[in-house]
Design brief:
Layout: E1 3-9, H1 12-24, E2 30-32, H2 34-39, E3 50-55, H3 59-81, H4 91-124
Antiparallel strand pairs: 1-3, 2-3
Length: about 140
Amino acid sequence: MTAVIIRRTTGMEEAAVITSALQAGGYSPSISNFHHAVNNWLLVPALGGVHIYLPAQEYESAKAYLRELHASAAKTLEAEFGPADMKPLKSRRIRGMLTLILLSTHIAVLYLIFRGALSLKQRLLPTQKKGLPQQ
């Protein structure tokens, strides 16, 4: 029995969801590189992602099952939880928040550099005592 790749994912979460959906549909998937994704997720792109394998005879029907599941997901969610009434954040608000975060980090870094330069100046240059000039 030969195994074929039905899906490649970039993370373990997506692979676990797809594998669970296939198992719920009566298929027998297997996952490779899953433990690499758990322990060292930076290595996964070099390995080509997390692979989900199926027996070759199940491939076509499983592919059709996943397509049907994907197409009916929005309808199922709406039937279960009602229509989505979330408003997306306005792009100006997002840009403003990102600008504020970037500016605050830059100001903090500049403050640390300035403070370090002042302490270095105090250590390198001798301080003069205030008072009467020496004769």
